[in-house]
Write a structure and sequence with these properties.
Layout (H helix, E strand, L loop, with lengths): L4 E2 L4 E6 L8 H34 L8 H24 L1 H20 L4 H29 L4 H31 L4 H4 L1 H15 L2 E6 L6 H24 L4 H23 L13 H31 L4 H7 L2 H20 L1 H19 L8 H28 L7 H30 L5 H30 L11 H4 L32
Antiparallel strand pairs: 1-2, 2-3
Length: 520
């Protein structure tokens, strides 16, 4: 079935569905798309457990190992908007299938990596393929389900698949690393990718947006990605080169110049990746800054916790993964509770409360000793961190997407998704840099623990910065003003008769505006 749609901006969306709107197979299509989203999030998290084994086998340095995570997150977050643009113009199903094929091949290369540089390069390719898969899968979902309750239900299931992927990473990563080797955390993606490739032509419909002139804005995408890489590389190398060294300051200055160049490119582009009019939205800016800092806390804490649990406490990946399921499970609970609270009190209080829990959990973890135990030293912090993470993620997303028009909804969603991934890359770089700087002393385990304590403290500082952004940039709920008694009972004069002889009804007073979640 084809359904062309012509817009005022000389664009036309052509839909080709292999099923009717009432066909039950669209739920199977949703399951397939959620499997793809699950795999993308699983791959981002599962490597955290296997990283100590990877670093030992391939000879990564203490600061170099984090690039196994950051290479994926940077290419994923930096190219996510470009991936969505390509899917819109070339066909969403076609681009989804291409990204899935590339993801499977790059996973094979990761598993067979024989050197540190090869693994980092393969992880970057994985991030590129994920940046193609994720936005095209979400676009297919939106074109498969009609707007209304069914689409809302489908989006809720799609969002839940990400949380389930993060939880499954802790459950599956440990057994794979212990039993079969770290290579299998990457080989696991291959059969999933083959299943997606086999079923996509059967279950997924094709759709695309046709314009008079195709414009992908690759220069803008590459410019902002280069700015992010320069910034993260400067932070990672700062402990060795010096924070005030010419190399560190030069890289940071280069990142700023590239970011300014990106703004100039977007201002002159016919079809920019990020329309600059969106940057005038205080809620969008504040919500995404909160999400960036939350992502930095989440990935930074997970990375540090894995290093401490396996390198200092001596936990195996299996035992450590099973023990830490409490954190992502708490995040799922916090996300559902946060969604309900946002409708009652607004996004700002929920975001601030979530970040307060994240910061408090990080501070509890900052006191870990050399001879620590899970129940005594780790569990209290994780119990606070998990719900705070889930609640703040929901509040930040709602704040960032509130008031965005329909035409900009895809771009705004892409920015919000990219914000968490980019924040994660920055957070891993920050905690690695801090840990290396403070890991000093004659006793190796004591030095490692000192570095980890400093890294957990850095996570608390990031949470405090996010809390400040939420307080200043997010708007609180609009409160209903109480009516004055004299205005509520003011009598109205009799209306003059109309030409027909009937008395005209007086115009009713407009009702006061109802309170919204995030204000105007």
């Amino acid at each position: 079935m084809k359904a062309p749609f012509s817009g005022a901006d000389n664009t036309r969306t052509t839909l080709e569905f292999p099923m009717t709107a009432s066909d039950a197979r669209r739920w199977y299509a949703l399951a397939l798309l959620c499997l793809a989203g699950f795999m993308v999030i699983l791959d981002a998290q599962i490597v955290v457990l296997a990283l100590p084994s990877i670093a030992s086998d391939l000879g990564f340095s203490a600061s170099g190992a984090q690039w196994v995570i950051s290479a994926y997150l940077l290419s994923f977050g930096g190219l996510l908007l470009l991936g969505g643009r390509i899917a819109d113009l070339l066909g969403r199903r076609r681009v989804f299938v291409t990204g899935t094929l590339l993801f499977g091949l790059s996973s094979l290369l990761c598993g067979f990596a024989w050197a540190a540089g090869v693994l980092v390069a393969a992880r970057a390719v994985q991030g590129v393929s994920a940046a193609v898969m994720a936005p095209s899968a979400l676009s297919i979902l939106l074109n498969t389900f009609d707007e209304g309750p069914e689409r809302n239900k489908a989006l809720a299931i799609w969002s839940g698949s990400g949380g389930f992927g993060a939880t499954a990473a802790l459950l599956v990563g440990g057994p794979l690393t212990d039993g079969l080797g770290w290579q299998w955390v990457f080989f696991l993606n291959v059969p999933v990718a083959l299943l997606l490739l086999a079923l996509s032509p059967v279950l997924l419909g094709e759709s695309r947006t046709r314009t008079r002139a195709r414009s992908y804005d690759p220069v803008g995408a590459l410019t902002i990605t280069a700015a992010l890489v320069a910034c993260v590389y400067a932070v990672v190398e700062a402990p060795g080169a010096g924070w005030l060294s010419a190399r560190t300051l030069g890289l940071l200055a280069g990142a700023v110049l590239l970011a300014l160049l990106f703004v100039r490119i977007e201002a002159r582009s016919v079809a920019p990746l990020v329309p600059l009019r969106l940057m005038r939205s205080r809620s969008l800016i504040g919500g995404n800054l909160v999400v960036i800092l939350l992502g930095a806390c989440a990935f930074g804490m997970s990375y540090t916790l894995s290093q401490y649990g396996q390198a200092v406490l001596g936990y195996s990946p299996l035992v450590f993964g099973l023990a830490n399921v409490v954190m992502p499970a708490g995040a799922v609970v916090g996300s559902y509770a946060g969604q309900a609270l946002v409708t009652r009190v607004g996004a700002r209080p929920v975001a601030m409360g979530g970040l307060a829990l994240v910061g408090a959990g990080s501070l509890l973890l900052a006191g870990v000793p050399v001879d620590g135990g899970f129940v005594r030293d780790l569990l209290p912090g994780l119990i606070l961190f998990g719900p705070g993470l889930g609640a703040c993620a929901v509040a930040g997303a709602i704040a960032a997407l509130t008031g965005v028009g329909e035409r900009e909804s895809g771009v705004a969603s892409g920015i919000n998704t990219a914000a968490f991934q980019i924040g994660g890359a920055f957070g891993v770089a920050v905690v690695t840099s801090v840990a290396v700087s403070y890991a000093t002393g004659p006793e190796p385990l004591a030095a490692l623990t000192a570095g980890h304590r400093a890294a957990f403290t850095a996570c608390a500082v990031l949470a405090a910065a996010g809390l400040a952004c939420a307080l200043v940039l997010l708007r609180g709920p609009r409160r209903r003003r109480p009516e004055r008694p004299e205005t509520a009972v003011t009598p109205t004069a009799p209306a003059p008769p109309s030409r027909s002889g009937r008395t005209a009804r007086p115009s009713p007073r407009p009702a006061p505006a109802s309170p919204t979640a995030d204000g105007p």
